[in-house]
Amino acid sequence: MKEKSKLVLIDGHALVHRAFHALPPTMSAKGVTTNAVYGFTSVLIKMIKDLNPDYVAAAFDLAGPTFRHKEFAEYKIHRQKAADELHAQVPIVKEVLKSFGVPVYEKQGYEADDLIGALAEKAQNSTGIQTVIMTGDLDTLQLVENDEVVVWTLKRGVTDAVIYDEKAVLKRYGLRPNQLVDYRGLKGDPSDNIPGVPGIGEKTAMALIQSFGNLENLYKTILNFKFPISKKDKEKIKAPLSEKLIQKLLENKDMAFFSKKLSIIAKDVPIDFSLDQARWRERGNVKELEEILKKYGFFSLVRRLPDIGLGETLPKEESFNLNYSNESITYLRNEKEALEIVKSVGDRVAVAMDEGDLILAVDEKTAYILPADVYLSLAPVFESEKVAKIFHGAKPIVKKLLTDGIRVNNIEFDSEVGGFLLDSESRNISFEKIYFDEIKSSAPTDSKSWPMRYFEIRKRLLARIKNLGMEGVLRDIEMPLIPVLAKMEMRGIRVDNRAISKLSSSLKKEIIKLEKKIYDMAGCEFNINSPSQLSRILFEKLGLKGKIRKTGKGALSTAASELDKLTDEHAVIPLILQYRELQKLKTTYIEPFPGFIGPDGRLHTTYNQTGAATGRLSSQDPNLQNVPIRTELGQEFRKAFTAEKGRKLVSFDYSQLELRIAAHMSGDKIMTAVFERGEDIHTRTAAEIFDVLPDKVTAAMRRKAKVLNFGILYGMGVLGFQRAAKVSREEAKGFIERYMAEFSGIAEYVEKIKSEARENGYVKTIFGRRRNILEINSKMPQLLSQAERIAVNSPIQGSAADLIKLAMIQIQELLEVTYKDSVHMLLQIHDELLFEMDPEVVNEASGNIKKIMENVYEFDVPIVADVKIGNNWAEMK
């Protein structure tokens, strides 16, 4: 049977909104917010690749009231006004659609859903057409009809899609598509402010429509009952009906039918449409499309165009300045050939690995491929200090060569790290992305030729890094750190599997106990891990009240930050938060943990230099940066990290490093004096803001002062401090005002950094690392507030990250000269370094390491590293 032609109808506004809220804010080179445009276009390309449609059309809402507003003035009245940054992107999206050859339909007084309903109806008049509605929500499911009309919608974010035909709708709702308007007539729709019948939720509405088919049949049945209902009639009432429910339905009959009417998508919109108008491949302009995408920096999307048959006019590599013709890539099969290369190498080589083979480029036109048993002959090249090495993603290669007994010296440049330095907010620092950004051409499909391109990419990125004053960060911090991290990953840390098994067992028992307590308090069993079920239990069944934000679907949020607001409202809230913490420990760490332990009984995490915009290291497989330490179970987990038999674990933890850096950067006189005298900063802060002598400071006072000290650096406002310190709004406001008055240097620093960020668009660490602050001039209060928090904290947190990296580099040099086999650096977790040492060198080595950590950079305040020794990570003193 001949396959049907496909018509895709795009719900433009729904997808733009979905993309805007799913993706973090991004800006073009000219400062235009582009996250919605990028997300929309990415989804469009995905859809075309998945469905290969013959016809495509799009519908958008227009500003102004619709016919529904005229019938019901409160329709969608609760909807927040869309952000200016979102509105500004809609014309760009339409520009993209035009270049794709997709016509856009709009009509005053109607919503995009109505236009889609009308277009789908017109399309059904043509034989052999399947209509696919592409949307970001589920409002158009009522239009689904057999296999003739289906809905293609996003399941999560802007990457996962799902298709709803009649079977899929039935599976999800237990209803046919044409019954969904009856369902909404009863349940209503909070997101559109469609009232429905008060007190009827999803389950009841679904059960009623399943039983009676539609509203008409339901009311035909219940209108036969007269109130008060006689004993005889009561016997006729069958589930899901009840006497109470019948009364509720009868009292709200008009509202039920009115809500159904508001929910029905209009299919009779007067609109001119023919399939010829939607022949997008014939009407599109690929060149124009590419220019638009490049204009906004969407080079990754340009590279995806050939996947949907739009790659014919992609720029060819030779049409640009670089000429890589007459390239030579030679496969070397024996040691003799490799040794000839060693003699001819110049002062710089580019290195990559591909499926176990090593690729060595000696210049922009000459590269060699060497299998594992041959590249060992290149050891003199890698170990030479005179030959600079350049990479894209150096650490895995350096680590592999170390396992082969080859030490890599003079790591000059890594374009992955260099690209990250230039744009630490980017989530894509692949070589293809960097190459396209710099050369304005796609990288060759054969990655074996890439190392020959490393030379030019190095030159271009390095020029930009120097221009931004970050050459020192690259040369003195990031490049020397690569072999240090490689050695740490190779060494790993010993893990006691029996301790993990014991913890897993006790954790499961604790979770079961908590579940029972939560069920008892809630009065029923439910899925605690389901946000929607938890929301219903807390806000409908238990009736908790509070200023709780809503999710995108209109439900009250159960995010931890929102539940924190309700801690004093009901005893179940602390239990739920505790349950979540234990579940996270169980699923994130305990359960997957045994899979991370190597045959040597040691855990080898992977460090990432490009994982955090502040410059901090992150780790994965597993992520050790977020191992809980303050809870009893967190400490039990740390007990599983042990020293090798006959050795000791030694921890070096910077004391209040970020506060000391804040004192240095701000020049605050009181904070500087406190650190110079070796006093406790939190006690002194409490004394200042509570106006008492230090010896009169209570534990509760000190705790509030600690929250304030760190909170100010993280941009915490009155509301944040109120929640964290559990004080009234007036008290919180007073504390912050007194803090800013007492620590005036900190207050001035905060305002100065915000001002510099607004003027420059970036902030810097002490060492020169830059972080772009994308939304610092945003008109959206939420985005602006977040940008200001980042601006204040990034220089401090980034300086702390740079400092510990410098310490790690110097410490590794010490270990290789003085303690080659007796001391090993194992882990870096925020401001802490963990070592494994032979007992006889612990005192001497600890003194030397502590000295390096405290003196690696000269600050205006003393830097202190606390030292602890033990047999496992939890029990150290």
From TrEMBL:
SMART domains for the chain: 53EXOc, HhH2, POLAc
UniProt-listed GO biological process terms: DNA-templated DNA replication; double-strand break repair
Signal peptide as annotated in the record: none
Pfam family, one: 5_3_exonuc_N
EC code(s) of this entry: 2.7.7.7
5'-3' exonuclease domain sequence ranges: 5-281
DNA-directed DNA polymerase family A palm domain boundaries: 634-841
Catalysed transformations (reactions): DNA(n) + a 2'-deoxyribonucleoside 5'-triphosphate = DNA(n+1) + diphosphate
Keyword flag DNA-binding: yes
Classification via CDD domains: DNA_pol_A_pol_I_C, H3TH_53EXO, PIN_53EXO
Keywords: DNA damage, DNA repair, DNA replication, DNA-binding, DNA-directed DNA polymerase, Exonuclease, Hydrolase, Nuclease, Nucleotidyltransferase, Transferase
Domain of life, per lineage: Bacteria
Keyword field contains Cell division: no
GO molecular function terms attached to this record: 5'-3' exonuclease activity; DNA binding; DNA-directed DNA polymerase activity
NCBIfam families: pola, PRK05755.1
Role description: In addition to polymerase activity, this DNA polymerase exhibits 5'-3' exonuclease activity.
Protein family membership: Belongs to the DNA polymerase type-A family.
Protein name: DNA polymerase I
